[in-house]
Amino acid sequence: xxxxxxxxxxxxxxxxxxxxxxxxxxxxxxxxxxxxxxxxxxxxxxxxxxxxxxxxxxxxxxxxxxxxxxxxxxxxxxxxxxxxxxxxxxxxxxxxxxxxxxxxxxxxxxxxxxxxxxxxxxxxxxxxxxxxxxxxxxxxxxxxxxxxxxxxxxxxxxxxxxxxxxxxxxxxxxxxxxxxxxxxxxxxxxxxxxxxxxxxxxxxxxxxxxxxxxxxxxxxxxxxxxxxxxxxxxxxxxxxxxxxxxxxxxxxxxxxxxxxxxxxxxxxxxxxxxxxxxxxxxxxxxxxxxxxxxxxxxxxxxxxxxxxxxxxxxxxxxxxxxxxxxxxxxxxxxxxxxxxxxxxxxxxxxxxxxxxxxxxxxxxxxxxxxxxxxxxxxxxxxxxxxxxxxxxxxxxxxxxxxxxxxxxxxxxxxxxxxxxxxxxxxxxxxxxxxxxxxxxxxxxxxxxxxxxxxxxxxxxxxxxxxxxxxxxxxxxxxxxxxxxxxxxxxxxxxxxxxxxxxxxxxxxxxxxxxxxxxxxxxxxxxxxxxxxxxxxxxxxxxxxxxxxxxxxxxxxxxxxxxxxxxxxxxxxxxxxxxxxxxxxxxxxxxxxxxxxxxxxxxxxxxxxxxxxxxxxxxxxxxxxxxxxxxxxxxxxxxxxxxxxxxxxxxxxxxxxxxxxxxxxxxxxxxxxxxx
Length: 675
Known about the structure:
Elements: E1 43-45, H1 80-83, E2 90-98, H2 101-111, H3 118-134, E3 143-152, H4 154-161, H5 174-180, E4 213-219, H6 222-238, E5 241-250, E6 272-273, E7 286-287, E8 290-296, E9 323-332, H7 334-351, H8 360-368, H9 413-417, E10 443-444, E11 447-449, E12 468-475, H10 479-490, E13 513-521, E14 524-532, E15 536-546, H11 549-556, E16 564-566, E17 571-572, E18 577-579, E19 583-587, E20 593-597, E21 602-605, E22 614-617, E23 623-626, E24 632-635, E25 645-648, E26 654-658, E27 661-668, E28 671-673
Parallel strand pairs: 6-8
Antiparallel strand pairs: 1-3, 2-4, 2-5, 3-4, 7-8, 9-12, 9-15, 10-12, 11-12, 13-14, 16-25, 17-22, 18-19, 19-20, 20-21, 22-23, 23-24, 25-26, 26-27, 27-28
């Protein structure tokens, strides 16, 4: 049997940092003062080590970025795990069911002050990074923090609000996916057989015991986390809130820090977020200090900011400032997976498709797409090379010159999950540009659960002990992000399409399927078939939503604004429809912006048929229908109102608001226009 973690030359001592602790001696450099640092009363200072690190050993800090260029770092309305990331060594998720609405609202009101914001988590993480640079790369140890996050499911939102949170759920929309939930959509996502909902530990309960909320607690100190869990469980009992399931997670120890149980560095490739991460001025499209990281609009992860292509979100106002959260418990059969790797490697050697001296990690790296230490196999195919201290492993990663997958197999997990610039949708045509795939990225916050598989490690380390990965992702659109990647890329054996034999599914997360291991030959590309079974099993899944802090406060009093919000910068193009149930706002094929009732009768239109090209809500607060040349064909006449909100209310009203003041209403039979 292959070892649980194959030997690797020069395995890094630690993976990406999850711990966020701060050395007191580095506080001044971080701009936080020289004493103990307090993070909303959830941080505990510890004595700084006596020894100091010579200044010469400190890593260079990136150049400072003006605060006005990174406004999302100061956001105190959004939850902190979405953009900033809790990055803790110890995490606990409590899956909750509310038995009585009034008591549930009181429970929520008491919890809201504890929910961690983007601003405080970002400040803490920045201070930690500065301290780590000052200590020469070692984890500083003088401050720990406890972070709290809350996600609500569709049943949870409905119960707290006393009504359905969506005025309409158009077929194929994110609203429909969220309302149906993960269990109802399981088969389409490959959760069948042993991964089917009937065997799940959470997420497939009957309606009378549905998951209403996911409470996330994350800390550096396991004892402090345990105390917080006990306190929240007591609060749940007092509020008649049932804890349906408890899921713990923790960073793996020693040389596996930052890795998942198969032994590979995890969460290496994350998108950069405009307005939160600094942009490299040399490129304008990548993150500063991470040349392999593309910058994406914040609206791909938070509802409200501008999205790729200025697409409309089509979601109610309560979603603004929040993010959809996917939680999945993925069990990993470590010894079986590595045994299978060894068997398939022997087949490749017999066929001449693998070098005679290749080891199990050689093939495993091609299945994952990276060596255990994080370097993409495409950049060092013969043997593992560890990234340098300041090296971005993906800086030079591009699949455009490898259309057949000779260096990075087309079925490799990281290539299926993020095809980058080498995706060829039609054989013989040029690959798509990276930017055409930006709308399918996610932010991942996963963490392992269970002890390391170590047959000689005694009780609890054998193959029968539960272990795996707690997958968590944040995105603004469940369908176009998480579900698109799972259905159209990972689980589709014909992706990339049009190849013979077919590429195969993702061998790490996908269903059982044959793979086509391609190697160069005298006649072109030679495909060696490999059958790869599934040794990652879904044991639970939930779709939740992490609302903005003001929305949580409103829910605590039973209020929820279900008007469809059109955000500044949003562009409506012909055939776009925003559905509020009783009324719809459409940009029709003729170029007219119109308000329709449920029977399709026009209640109002801009009268731009034949001349209108698109409609936009400007950042200056004006609704404009533009011609193909970009000139105004119609306007609400409400410029010079930055921050104005355009709402499509289920009662039939289309209104532009500046605060609570109406700037413009669509004229209907009930009256309207400029107030």
